[in-house]
Amino acid sequence: MPTPSTSTIKNNDSISFNYSSLLLASCKKKWRFVDAIYGVLPIFGVVTRKSAHNKLETVEYFKELALQIISTQVSDEMNIARLLVLAEQQNIKHFTIQLPYSLSDHQIALIHTEYRKSVSLHQENDFLHVRFEFR
């Protein structure tokens, strides 16, 4: 699994990274007005699909987009739901996120409620494994 400061893509349709590192990076980011709007109301943000030529480029692009939509002003459950939407939009089929703690059943239910689509969430210690079913 990834170390706290790294992100990886295992193959073209799977991404894995550390949530705490991403949240920390979002705190250190120099925000523009548009970034602040996207952070509070990500529905205004338009996420485009990009076909990266290499995996590192794909990871960095995903992280760049993720920094626009996660916020310390909302719950972890809301941020995770936003990351699920982003991963789906980027056609990432498997998603693993290392969390700073294990989620409760109630928190997982909240993520399902926020995401509003069918998705498989499997927790293994501090790792949340997500599997999307694209048609």
Structural descriptors:
5 helices, 5 strands, alpha+beta, 135 residues, 43% helix, globular, 5-stranded mixed β-sheet
Q: How are the elements arranged and paired?
A:
Blueprint: E1 7-11, E2 14-18, H1 19-28, H2 33-40, H3 55-69, H4 76-89, E3 94-98, H5 105-115, E4 119-124, E5 127-132
Parallel strand pairs: 2-3
Antiparallel strand pairs: 1-2, 3-5, 4-5
Brief account:
This protein has 135 residues and is α+β, with helices and mostly antiparallel strands.
Low-pLDDT stretches are 1-12, 43-53
Structural class: alpha+beta
In order across it, which strands form the biggest sheet? 1-2-3-5-4
Which radius of gyration do the C-alpha atoms yield? 14 Å
Largest sheet, in brief, is:
5 strands, mixed
Oligomer: single chain
Tell me roughly what share of residues is in helical segments.
40-55%
Run of helices and strands: EEHHHHEHEE
Q: Kindly state the number of beta strands.
A: 5
Distance between the termini: 28 Å
Describe this structure as you would to a colleague:
- The protein has 135 residues and is of the alpha+beta class.
- The protein has one domain (7-132).
- The protein has helices at residues 19-28, 33-40, 55-69, 76-89, 105-115, and strands spanning 7-11, 14-18, 94-98, 119-124, 127-132.
- A five-stranded mixed beta sheet has the order 1-2-3-5-4.
- Helix 3 (55-69) crosses helix 4.
- The longest helix is centred in the middle third of the chain and has 15 residues, at 55-69.
- It is globular and about 35 Å long.
